[in-house]
Amino acid sequence: MLIVLMIISILLLIAVPNMSNNNEVAASKGCEATVKMVQAQVYAYEIEKGELPNNLDDLSPDYVDKLKCPDDTELDYDKEDNGKVTSKSS
């Protein structure tokens, strides 16, 4: 019985740090996906209206529902750089 508990403890010591690392990777990928989605909506706005939006707020609510990454990182928008969208953490 003691050996079984020791083996389970070792497995938990290995598994728990890997799970927390995976959460960080998932949050990072979620932000990258949000940036790409908002960038696509900037292009959709440009096609429909014939010009780039002045700021990201012009996209809401018709093109996007949320203008933040899943981890609440703000997004940057540069109209002068062909409407490039980036996250403030990059």
What does this structure look like?
Helix content is 53%, strand content 9%. It has one helix and two strands, in the order αββ. The protein has one helix at residues 2-49, and strands spanning 75-78, 84-87. A two-stranded antiparallel ribbon has the order 1-2. A hairpin with a 5-residue loop joins strand 1 and strand 2 (84-87). The model has no long low-confidence stretch (mean pLDDT 84).
> What's the helix-strand series?
HEE
The general outline is rod-shaped
**What is the first-to-last residue Cα distance?**
50 Å
Please give the share of residues in helix: 40-55%
Adjacency order of strands in the biggest sheet: 1-2
Largest sheet properties: 2 strands, antiparallel
Question: Helix/strand-derived class?
Answer: mainly alpha
Beta-strand percentage? 5-15%
Number of strands: 2
Low-confidence stretches: none
Rg, rounded, reads 21 Å
What is the mean pLDDT? 84
Distinct helical segment count = 1
Quick rundown:
The chain has one helix at 2-49, and strands at 75-78, 84-87.
In terms of topology, how is this protein built?
Layout: H1 2-49, E1 75-78, E2 84-87
Antiparallel strand pairs: 1-2
Keywords:
rod-shaped, 9% strand, mainly alpha, 90 residues, 1 helix
